[in-house]
Input
Amino acid sequence: MTHWFHRNPLKATAPVAFNYYGVAAGPPASKICSDLRSSRARLLELFTDLSCNPEMMKNAADSYFSLLQGFINSLDESTQESKLRYIQNFKWTDTLQGQVPSAQQDAVFELISMGFNVALWYTKYASRLAGKENITEDEAKEVHRSLKIAAGIFKHLKESHIPKLITPVEKGRDLEARLLEAYVVQCQAEAQEVTIARAIELKHAPGLIAALAYETANFYQKADHALSSLEPAYSAKWRKYLHLKMCFYTAYAYCYHGQTLLASDKCGEAIRSLQEAEKFYAKAEVLCKEYGETKGPGPTVRPSGHLFFRKLGNLVTNTLEKCQRENGFIFLFFVSLVFLPCELYGASLLHPRGHPALLTATCKAEKWVFCPSCLVL
Output
Protein backbone atom coordinates (compact mmCIF):
# COMPACT_ATOMS: atom_id res chain seq x y z
CA MET A 1 0.00 0.00 0.00
CA THR A 2 1.37 3.43 -0.93
CA HIS A 3 1.22 6.29 1.54
CA TRP A 4 1.04 10.05 1.23
CA PHE A 5 2.39 12.40 3.91
CA HIS A 6 2.40 16.20 4.14
CA ARG A 7 5.86 17.67 4.59
CA ASN A 8 6.95 21.19 5.51
CA PRO A 9 10.14 22.57 3.88
CA LEU A 10 13.56 22.31 5.47
CA LYS A 11 15.04 25.21 7.41
CA ALA A 12 17.67 27.28 5.59
CA THR A 13 20.75 28.71 7.25
CA ALA A 14 23.52 31.24 6.64
CA PRO A 15 27.07 29.92 6.10
CA VAL A 16 29.30 29.77 9.19
CA ALA A 17 33.06 30.16 8.71
CA PHE A 18 34.19 29.24 12.26
CA ASN A 19 37.18 31.58 11.88
CA TYR A 20 38.38 32.70 15.29
CA TYR A 21 41.54 34.74 14.75
CA GLY A 22 43.15 35.55 18.06
CA VAL A 23 41.12 32.85 19.81
CA ALA A 24 42.29 29.70 18.04
CA ALA A 25 45.65 28.93 19.67
CA GLY A 26 47.70 26.83 17.28
CA PRO A 27 47.24 24.21 14.54
CA PRO A 28 45.02 21.83 16.60
CA ALA A 29 42.50 24.62 17.17
CA SER A 30 42.58 25.58 13.50
CA LYS A 31 41.98 21.93 12.60
CA ILE A 32 38.89 21.81 14.84
CA CYS A 33 37.52 24.97 13.21
CA SER A 34 38.19 23.52 9.76
CA ASP A 35 36.47 20.25 10.68
CA LEU A 36 33.47 22.14 12.06
CA ARG A 37 33.17 24.09 8.83
CA SER A 38 33.46 21.04 6.57
CA SER A 39 31.24 18.75 8.66
CA ARG A 40 28.51 21.41 8.80
CA ALA A 41 28.70 21.93 5.04
CA ARG A 42 28.56 18.16 4.48
CA LEU A 43 25.49 17.76 6.68
CA LEU A 44 23.66 20.61 4.93
CA GLU A 45 24.54 19.07 1.57
CA LEU A 46 23.05 15.70 2.54
CA PHE A 47 19.69 17.25 3.45
CA THR A 48 18.93 17.76 -0.25
CA ASP A 49 20.80 14.72 -1.60
CA LEU A 50 18.23 12.14 -2.75
CA SER A 51 20.85 9.38 -2.61
CA CYS A 52 21.41 9.95 1.12
CA ASN A 53 20.34 7.08 3.39
CA PRO A 54 19.92 6.90 7.20
CA GLU A 55 23.44 5.56 7.75
CA MET A 56 24.98 8.46 5.81
CA MET A 57 22.81 10.95 7.69
CA LYS A 58 23.67 9.44 11.07
CA ASN A 59 27.41 9.52 10.37
CA ALA A 60 27.32 13.12 9.14
CA ALA A 61 25.16 14.27 12.06
CA ASP A 62 27.36 12.47 14.59
CA SER A 63 30.46 14.08 13.08
CA TYR A 64 29.10 17.62 13.31
CA PHE A 65 27.26 17.37 16.63
CA SER A 66 30.21 15.76 18.40
CA LEU A 67 32.40 18.70 17.38
CA LEU A 68 29.70 21.24 18.23
CA GLN A 69 29.40 19.82 21.75
CA GLY A 70 32.79 21.40 22.50
CA PHE A 71 31.10 24.79 22.12
CA ILE A 72 28.30 23.84 24.52
CA ASN A 73 29.63 21.68 27.35
CA SER A 74 32.71 22.09 29.50
CA LEU A 75 35.48 19.70 28.48
CA ASP A 76 36.23 18.69 32.08
CA GLU A 77 32.82 16.94 32.29
CA SER A 78 31.60 19.44 34.89
CA THR A 79 28.12 20.93 34.83
CA GLN A 80 29.47 24.26 33.61
CA GLU A 81 28.87 25.36 30.04
CA SER A 82 31.69 26.00 27.59
CA LYS A 83 33.17 29.48 27.42
CA LEU A 84 32.81 29.18 23.63
CA ARG A 85 29.01 28.85 23.69
CA TYR A 86 28.31 32.50 22.75
CA ILE A 87 31.24 33.15 20.42
CA GLN A 88 29.41 32.52 17.11
CA ASN A 89 26.20 33.96 15.63
CA PHE A 90 23.88 31.50 13.82
CA LYS A 91 20.98 32.31 11.48
CA TRP A 92 18.13 29.96 10.56
CA THR A 93 14.85 30.42 8.69
CA ASP A 94 11.51 28.96 9.75
CA THR A 95 9.66 26.09 8.07
CA LEU A 96 6.27 27.82 8.34
CA GLN A 97 7.07 31.55 8.26
CA GLY A 98 9.24 31.53 5.16
CA GLN A 99 12.57 33.19 4.60
CA VAL A 100 12.60 35.59 7.56
CA PRO A 101 15.54 34.29 9.64
CA SER A 102 15.97 34.08 13.38
CA ALA A 103 19.46 34.72 14.74
CA GLN A 104 21.04 33.87 18.06
CA GLN A 105 24.65 34.02 19.20
CA ASP A 106 24.38 30.67 20.93
CA ALA A 107 25.75 27.23 20.01
CA VAL A 108 22.71 25.61 21.65
CA PHE A 109 20.50 27.40 19.10
CA GLU A 110 22.64 25.89 16.34
CA LEU A 111 22.38 22.41 17.87
CA ILE A 112 18.58 22.69 18.11
CA SER A 113 18.09 24.14 14.62
CA MET A 114 20.36 21.62 12.93
CA GLY A 115 18.82 18.80 14.96
CA PHE A 116 15.39 20.00 13.85
CA ASN A 117 16.50 19.71 10.22
CA VAL A 118 17.90 16.22 10.85
CA ALA A 119 14.50 15.17 12.22
CA LEU A 120 12.76 16.72 9.21
CA TRP A 121 15.12 14.81 6.91
CA TYR A 122 14.08 11.52 8.53
CA THR A 123 10.41 12.37 7.96
CA LYS A 124 11.09 13.24 4.33
CA TYR A 125 13.09 10.06 3.80
CA ALA A 126 10.23 8.03 5.30
CA SER A 127 7.76 9.83 3.03
CA ARG A 128 9.76 9.07 -0.13
CA LEU A 129 10.10 5.42 0.81
CA ALA A 130 6.45 5.02 1.84
CA GLY A 131 5.22 6.59 -1.39
CA LYS A 132 6.56 3.74 -3.53
CA GLU A 133 4.02 1.59 -5.36
CA ASN A 134 5.17 -1.79 -4.03
CA ILE A 135 6.86 -1.26 -0.70
CA THR A 136 8.64 -4.31 0.73
CA GLU A 137 8.50 -5.47 4.33
CA ASP A 138 12.05 -4.25 4.97
CA GLU A 139 11.22 -0.85 3.48
CA ALA A 140 8.11 -0.61 5.64
CA LYS A 141 10.25 -1.30 8.70
CA GLU A 142 12.68 1.40 7.57
CA VAL A 143 9.81 3.90 7.24
CA HIS A 144 8.61 3.02 10.74
CA ARG A 145 12.15 3.27 12.17
CA SER A 146 12.81 6.65 10.51
CA LEU A 147 9.59 8.14 11.86
CA LYS A 148 10.41 6.87 15.36
CA ILE A 149 13.85 8.49 15.18
CA ALA A 150 12.33 11.77 13.97
CA ALA A 151 9.77 11.75 16.79
CA GLY A 152 12.54 11.04 19.29
CA ILE A 153 14.64 13.95 18.06
CA PHE A 154 11.74 16.42 18.15
CA LYS A 155 10.80 15.23 21.64
CA HIS A 156 14.37 15.44 22.93
CA LEU A 157 14.88 18.94 21.54
CA LYS A 158 11.66 20.08 23.18
CA GLU A 159 12.43 18.58 26.58
CA SER A 160 16.21 18.80 26.93
CA HIS A 161 17.70 21.53 24.73
CA ILE A 162 15.16 24.28 24.07
CA PRO A 163 14.77 25.05 27.81
CA LYS A 164 18.51 25.89 27.84
CA LEU A 165 18.15 28.76 25.36
CA ILE A 166 18.86 32.20 26.82
CA THR A 167 16.68 34.01 24.26
CA PRO A 168 13.01 32.95 24.54
CA VAL A 169 11.54 31.12 21.55
CA GLU A 170 9.43 33.37 19.32
CA LYS A 171 5.74 32.53 19.19
CA GLY A 172 4.66 30.58 16.14
CA ARG A 173 8.23 29.64 15.19
CA ASP A 174 9.61 26.14 14.69
CA LEU A 175 11.07 25.76 18.17
CA GLU A 176 7.88 26.60 20.04
CA ALA A 177 6.41 23.77 22.13
CA ARG A 178 3.12 23.65 20.19
CA LEU A 179 4.83 22.99 16.88
CA LEU A 180 7.25 20.44 18.27
CA GLU A 181 4.37 18.58 19.91
CA ALA A 182 2.53 18.53 16.57
CA TYR A 183 5.61 17.11 14.82
CA VAL A 184 6.05 14.39 17.47
CA VAL A 185 2.42 13.27 17.34
CA GLN A 186 2.30 13.43 13.53
CA CYS A 187 5.33 11.12 13.36
CA GLN A 188 3.59 8.72 15.74
CA ALA A 189 0.44 8.75 13.60
CA GLU A 190 2.31 8.20 10.34
CA ALA A 191 4.35 5.35 11.81
CA GLN A 192 1.11 3.71 12.84
CA GLU A 193 -0.20 4.08 9.28
CA VAL A 194 2.57 1.70 8.25
CA THR A 195 1.48 -0.72 11.00
CA ILE A 196 -2.12 -0.59 9.74
CA ALA A 197 -1.06 -1.26 6.14
CA ARG A 198 0.99 -4.24 7.31
CA ALA A 199 -1.93 -5.57 9.39
CA ILE A 200 -4.22 -5.35 6.36
CA GLU A 201 -1.64 -7.08 4.15
CA LEU A 202 -1.30 -9.94 6.66
CA LYS A 203 -5.11 -10.17 6.94
CA HIS A 204 -5.22 -9.58 10.69
CA ALA A 205 -8.56 -9.47 12.49
CA PRO A 206 -10.75 -6.51 11.46
CA GLY A 207 -11.18 -5.63 15.14
CA LEU A 208 -7.43 -5.07 15.52
CA ILE A 209 -7.27 -2.96 12.35
CA ALA A 210 -10.25 -0.89 13.53
CA ALA A 211 -8.57 -0.24 16.89
CA LEU A 212 -5.30 0.81 15.23
CA ALA A 213 -7.12 3.09 12.79
CA TYR A 214 -9.14 4.69 15.59
CA GLU A 215 -5.98 5.38 17.60
CA THR A 216 -4.29 6.83 14.51
CA ALA A 217 -7.24 9.17 13.95
CA ASN A 218 -6.90 10.32 17.57
CA PHE A 219 -3.19 11.00 17.02
CA TYR A 220 -4.01 13.25 14.05
CA GLN A 221 -6.70 15.03 16.05
CA LYS A 222 -4.20 15.64 18.86
CA ALA A 223 -1.62 17.06 16.43
CA ASP A 224 -4.26 19.34 14.91
CA HIS A 225 -5.25 20.57 18.38
CA ALA A 226 -1.61 21.49 19.09
CA LEU A 227 -1.68 23.84 16.08
CA SER A 228 -5.15 25.28 16.71
CA SER A 229 -3.90 28.54 18.25
CA LEU A 230 -1.33 29.30 15.54
CA GLU A 231 -1.78 31.98 12.89
CA PRO A 232 -3.92 30.41 10.08
CA ALA A 233 -1.81 32.04 7.38
CA TYR A 234 1.07 29.75 8.37
CA SER A 235 -0.69 26.65 9.67
CA ALA A 236 -3.86 26.30 7.54
CA LYS A 237 -2.45 23.85 4.99
CA TRP A 238 -0.78 21.68 7.62
CA ARG A 239 -3.98 21.60 9.68
CA LYS A 240 -6.03 20.61 6.59
CA TYR A 241 -3.73 17.62 6.22
CA LEU A 242 -4.12 16.61 9.87
CA HIS A 243 -7.91 17.02 9.77
CA LEU A 244 -8.06 15.09 6.49
CA LYS A 245 -6.08 12.18 7.93
CA MET A 246 -8.23 12.23 11.09
CA CYS A 247 -11.42 11.84 9.02
CA PHE A 248 -9.76 9.28 6.75
CA TYR A 249 -8.69 6.97 9.57
CA THR A 250 -11.97 7.42 11.43
CA ALA A 251 -13.63 6.13 8.26
CA TYR A 252 -11.14 3.25 8.27
CA ALA A 253 -12.01 2.45 11.88
CA TYR A 254 -15.76 2.37 11.28
CA CYS A 255 -15.33 0.36 8.08
CA TYR A 256 -13.38 -2.42 9.80
CA HIS A 257 -15.57 -2.20 12.89
CA GLY A 258 -18.50 -2.86 10.56
CA GLN A 259 -16.75 -5.98 9.28
CA THR A 260 -16.33 -7.17 12.88
CA LEU A 261 -20.03 -6.61 13.57
CA LEU A 262 -21.02 -8.42 10.36
CA ALA A 263 -18.90 -11.42 11.36
CA SER A 264 -20.84 -11.48 14.65
CA ASP A 265 -24.17 -11.51 12.74
CA LYS A 266 -24.97 -7.96 13.90
CA CYS A 267 -25.87 -6.83 10.43
CA GLY A 268 -27.99 -3.83 11.40
CA GLU A 269 -25.21 -2.40 13.55
CA ALA A 270 -22.69 -3.21 10.83
CA ILE A 271 -24.67 -1.20 8.28
CA ARG A 272 -24.89 1.74 10.66
CA SER A 273 -21.13 1.60 11.26
CA LEU A 274 -20.47 1.50 7.51
CA GLN A 275 -22.79 4.47 7.00
CA GLU A 276 -20.71 6.37 9.53
CA ALA A 277 -17.57 5.34 7.63
CA GLU A 278 -19.17 6.65 4.44
CA LYS A 279 -19.91 9.98 6.18
CA PHE A 280 -16.31 10.45 7.35
CA TYR A 281 -14.96 9.42 3.96
CA ALA A 282 -17.14 12.10 2.34
CA LYS A 283 -15.71 14.65 4.79
CA ALA A 284 -12.21 13.51 3.86
CA GLU A 285 -13.03 13.99 0.15
CA VAL A 286 -14.04 17.60 0.80
CA LEU A 287 -10.87 18.19 2.82
CA CYS A 288 -8.76 16.72 0.01
CA LYS A 289 -10.06 19.42 -2.32
CA GLU A 290 -9.57 22.13 0.30
CA TYR A 291 -6.02 20.95 0.99
CA GLY A 292 -5.11 21.29 -2.69
CA GLU A 293 -6.55 24.81 -2.79
CA THR A 294 -5.04 26.05 0.49
CA LYS A 295 -1.92 28.18 0.21
CA GLY A 296 0.97 27.64 2.57
CA PRO A 297 4.12 25.59 3.16
CA GLY A 298 3.95 22.06 1.81
CA PRO A 299 3.45 20.26 -1.51
CA THR A 300 0.75 21.13 -4.03
CA VAL A 301 -0.99 17.80 -4.62
CA ARG A 302 -4.48 16.32 -4.96
CA PRO A 303 -4.76 13.63 -2.26
CA SER A 304 -8.12 12.38 -3.57
CA GLY A 305 -6.37 10.97 -6.64
CA HIS A 306 -3.84 9.06 -4.55
CA LEU A 307 -4.07 5.27 -4.42
CA PHE A 308 -4.30 5.13 -0.62
CA PHE A 309 -7.41 7.33 -0.73
CA ARG A 310 -9.20 5.59 -3.60
CA LYS A 311 -8.74 2.12 -2.08
CA LEU A 312 -10.58 3.07 1.10
CA GLY A 313 -13.48 4.55 -0.87
CA ASN A 314 -13.95 1.29 -2.77
CA LEU A 315 -13.63 -0.74 0.43
CA VAL A 316 -16.31 1.27 2.26
CA THR A 317 -18.72 1.09 -0.69
CA ASN A 318 -18.25 -2.64 -1.30
CA THR A 319 -18.49 -3.56 2.39
CA LEU A 320 -21.65 -1.49 2.87
CA GLU A 321 -23.27 -3.07 -0.19
CA LYS A 322 -22.39 -6.53 1.12
CA CYS A 323 -23.94 -5.74 4.52
CA GLN A 324 -27.10 -4.40 2.90
CA ARG A 325 -27.44 -7.47 0.66
CA GLU A 326 -27.00 -9.89 3.54
CA ASN A 327 -29.38 -7.95 5.73
CA GLY A 328 -32.00 -7.92 2.98
CA PHE A 329 -31.79 -11.63 2.20
CA ILE A 330 -30.83 -13.23 5.53
CA PHE A 331 -30.90 -11.16 8.71
CA LEU A 332 -33.61 -8.51 8.19
CA PHE A 333 -32.24 -6.48 11.11
CA PHE A 334 -33.48 -2.96 11.83
CA VAL A 335 -30.92 -0.27 10.96
CA SER A 336 -30.94 2.42 13.63
CA LEU A 337 -31.15 6.04 12.54
CA VAL A 338 -29.23 7.04 15.65
CA PHE A 339 -25.56 6.10 15.69
CA LEU A 340 -24.12 5.04 19.02
CA PRO A 341 -20.33 5.66 18.88
CA CYS A 342 -18.48 2.38 19.08
CA GLU A 343 -15.94 1.79 21.80
CA LEU A 344 -12.62 1.36 20.07
CA TYR A 345 -9.39 1.39 21.98
CA GLY A 346 -5.85 1.85 20.72
CA ALA A 347 -3.84 -1.33 20.39
CA SER A 348 -0.29 0.00 20.46
CA LEU A 349 1.90 2.85 21.60
CA LEU A 350 4.88 4.12 19.64
CA HIS A 351 7.88 5.01 21.77
CA PRO A 352 9.95 7.70 20.02
CA ARG A 353 13.52 6.71 19.35
CA GLY A 354 16.04 9.53 19.48
CA HIS A 355 19.20 10.24 17.56
CA PRO A 356 22.31 9.13 19.55
CA ALA A 357 24.33 12.29 18.91
CA LEU A 358 21.54 14.45 20.27
CA LEU A 359 20.72 12.22 23.21
CA THR A 360 24.30 12.05 24.50
CA ALA A 361 25.21 15.44 25.94
CA THR A 362 28.84 14.44 26.55
CA CYS A 363 29.47 13.21 23.01
CA LYS A 364 32.62 14.97 21.77
CA ALA A 365 35.15 14.33 19.05
CA GLU A 366 38.53 12.95 20.07
CA LYS A 367 40.10 16.17 18.82
CA TRP A 368 38.47 18.02 21.71
CA VAL A 369 39.51 15.42 24.28
CA PHE A 370 43.18 15.63 23.34
CA CYS A 371 43.17 19.41 22.94
CA PRO A 372 41.10 20.81 25.84
CA SER A 373 42.66 24.27 25.80
CA CYS A 374 43.36 24.82 22.13
CA LEU A 375 40.50 27.35 21.87
CA VAL A 376 40.72 29.97 24.61
CA LEU A 377 38.99 33.22 25.44
